[in-house]
Specification:
By secondary structure, the protein is an alpha+beta fold. The chain is built from six helices and 14 strands. Helices cover 25% and strands 30% of the residues.
Length: 328
């Protein structure tokens, strides 16, 4: 059962398209609309199962990987949730040249890459170092060279030969190591929309590289509930009181002129549509950016500024005095 076919959507469908397809199919096969119809009831169950998998980002990523493996489709980039762990780092020596390589463990490597939040908006490429292990062609990785009767015991067995009666020399080709290690630089393609603490699997000529992606957020930006991108911005005092235009820097470090209303609470936010981040590598549109404004106090206040603020303080003081007199 192919979950995409069950919902009648393409594999590239967005989260919104998946949800819309589920609603349509669920209404079509709902038991209330199809009483005494076991086939419709079965279809309804399949639709629910498909949506439970494709409607969840992490489950969808795993499902896609499994389907590609079943269908024999090589994936250049596969995503894993942070919980996926890999116990074996290399999976043995590099044996791709062997005729039995397809039946042996393919070497796997680990790497770490940090990107900025702005860089996550576009596909990136990074070169990462991996240590490639190669089997010695002379000893096939055994590290053993020529052997003969132990000279100390004459073949009867002793501590020198491990009680075997035979003493082996170290392989001349690898000096008894069994192979060699060499640092290689491999190119890793990072799709747009990668989330922090997500693992990316890339197939290279040397093996599979499992890369942990870390997205670095600026100090004034955080990821809120429901995928919201929240940016703390400072606005001048007069804009906070009266409202008005004020420019901010976008994620791409460009200026955006924003009209701020008067600031009435510390939790008041302003939404800027389409200026956030992608919710996943499958997303085709960026999310929204939410501005959380606060009053910005100048570090070096001029004498003129101080005078105006002192006058404002006196005005507030007189108003407070009038309020107290009235209450008496």
């Amino acid at each position: 059962m192919n979950f995409y076919e069950v919902l009648g959507i393409k594999k590239t469908a967005t989260a919104e398209e998946i949800k819309a397809a589920f609603r349509t199919k669920a209404l079509q096969y709902h038991p209330d609309r199809n009483p005494d119809n076991p086939q419709a009831e079965e279809k309804f169950k399949e639709v629910n199962t498909a949506y439970e998998t494709l409607g969840d980002q992490q489950q969808r990523l795993r499902y896609d990987q499994q389907q590609d493996h079943i269908n024999g489709i090589p994936r250049q980039d596969t995503f894993f949730s942070p919980e996926v762990m890999f116990d074996d780092l290399f999976g043995g020596f590099n044996t791709r040249s062997s005729s039995t390589a397809r039946h042996q463990a393919f070497p796997r490597f680990k790497a770490n890459i940090s990107i900025t939040l702005a860089e996550s908006l576009e596909e990136q490429e990074r070169m990462v170092p991996i240590t490639v292990r190669t089997k010695c062609i002379k000893c096939f990785g055994t590290a053993v060279g020529k052997g003969g009767r132990c000279t100390k015991c004459g073949g009867s067995g002793c501590q020198n030969c491990g009680e075997t009666g035979v003493k082996y020399e170290a392989c001349e080709g690898c000096k008894g190591i069994g192979g060699s290690e060499e640092t290689k630089q491999v190119k890793i393609k990072i799709p747009k929309g990668m989330l922090s603490n997500t693992q990316l699997q890339s197939n290279t000529e040397h093996g599979t590289v499992l890369t942990s992606i870390v997205v670095q957020y600026p100090d004034n930006i955080k990821l809120g509930a429901g995928g919201r991108l929240i940016m703390n911005v400072g606005i001048p005092y007069h804009v906070a009181v009266l409202g008005g235009m004020h420019s901010i820097k976008s994620l791409e470090d460009t200026k955006i002129n924003v009209k701020f209303p008067p600031l009435k609470s510390t939790t008041q936010m302003i939404k800027i549509k389409g200026k956030g981040v992608y919710s996943s590598p499958y997303s085709t549109e960026r999310g929204d950016l939410f501005l959380l404004p606060h009053v910005e106090i100048p570090e070096n206040m001029s004498d003129e500024h101080k005078t105006i603020i002192e006058q404002l303080a006196k005005l507030y003081s007189r108003e407070d005095s009038n309020d107290e007199s009235t209450s008496l």
